[in-house]
Amino acid sequence: MHVLILTANADAPFMNQQIDELERRGVTFTVLPIAGDASDVTSRSPMDYLRMVPKVISESGNGYDLIHAHYGLTTPVALSQLRTPVVMSLWGSDVHGPAKPVSRACAPLCDEVIVMSEEMREELGYDCRVIPDGIDLEKFTPSSQRQARERVGWDDAGDAYQVLFPYRPGRTVKNFPRAERVVAAAERLLDRPIDLRVVHQVDHDAVPDYMNAADALLLTSRSEGSPNSVKEAMACNLPVVATDVGDVRERLAGVDPSHVGASDAELVDGLVDVLRRGERSNGREAAREVSIERTADQILDVYERVADERVEPEREAPQV
After folding, report:
1. 92: exposed, middle or buried (C-beta count within 10 Å: 0-12, 13-18, 19+)?
2. pLDDT digit string, tens, across residues 95-132
3. pTM score
4. Angle of CA points 240, 11, 74, to nearest 5°
5. How far does Cα 295 stand from its chain's mean position?
6. Where are the alpha helices (DSSP H) in 141-246?
């Protein structure tokens, strides 16, 4: 099977892990990223997407079984050609943010739609497949906290608690000011200081070291799909304190210690409890449900069904 991927972020670790795992199953890929600049404060312009249309129309004629459009805004470009089936994967902000109308309009035109959580499916208002992004359980695995702190340079932190915030502070949806408030309030209730460690733009291979070096992961997002950081923390048995967004509550069901809260007070209480207990969680067992192997199997099932449905009418065509 040969798949053309259209994406707004060719560097997304979860997408590339998915590609690598599917390649082990015999799928081959060509990746076309949307050109143009994007950052925390700027987005690609409509012209950046429109300029891709001729290239996608031309490329789609090269024998692909399907086009996989990652992120809602890439889907109109994928649908600009008529010969190849389209699978749309939504990432979260394209359902909860300004791109939602585009995602919703494209959904009925696609051969299959994939979302990361039941919450996203309900918000989209369309019957689609729920497949969370998978986690590499060989990469994300528990290890010595002391050694991990040496590797990430936190070995001089003294007795301060280490709370990980693995996102860009400038991303409004991640709500870094709330994380600062929660940590400041928790620190007043504890007998030890808290270091709020903001970690981003590091090699993805280094992320497990930060997970194992920390005492807790703090997620204060306004919205999410199925946040990989939570699942990666679970795989490393790192306790999580998070807002009730996306599939976080479902993923953390039965994971202890960890807490999901709606208000600042609930998040503060949860963080204080986790830090006072000083224990690793039992999250790894729950993380097996979203291993990269399991989710790749589900994606491959979608691919095979979409490709088969497109050729079935030809198989059943009457003989002349």
Report:
1. buried
2. 988 999 999 999 999 999 999 999 999 999 999 999 99
3. 0.87
4. 100
5. 12
6. 145-152, 176-189, 207-213, 228-235
